[in-house]
Amino acid sequence: MTGLVQGTPPNASKNPCDSLTHCHDLYRQRIGDALREFARCMQDQVPPLSICAVACLVLCVPLLAGTPIAYLACVAACEFGCTVAGVIDWQSCESLLTFATDNAKASYCGCIAWKESNCRSVDWEIDIVGCAP
Description:
- The chain is mostly helical.
- 66% of the residues lie in helices and 0% in strands.
- It contains five helices and no strands.
- The radius of gyration is 25 Å and the shape is rod-shaped.
- The chain starts with a helix and ends in a 15-residue tail after the last helix.
């Protein structure tokens, strides 16, 4: 972060000192990106319901010779198994989200520090995430 304080502004296309919400806007954008990536990761963990349902219907066909209840129980258990198997890696998605939100906070705090070192005090932003040690 010290490189940010002495280096170039966090977003060189705009002067951060000209906006009272520059760091906040970047932080919100990064958090939004992190949440979208988390949702995408979770979506990738679960197989499409139609594939799972078809597979379960086919796998349980031998039970059709018995009672319909046995067949339905087989299909329900199978679909539940598909869903559980699909979300087993939720911890990876959660780890990615944690990393991204921590990174967003660190970037935000670097931006706040840069503004406090390079802008007039009237252009400083209110710290919304608790950057102070």
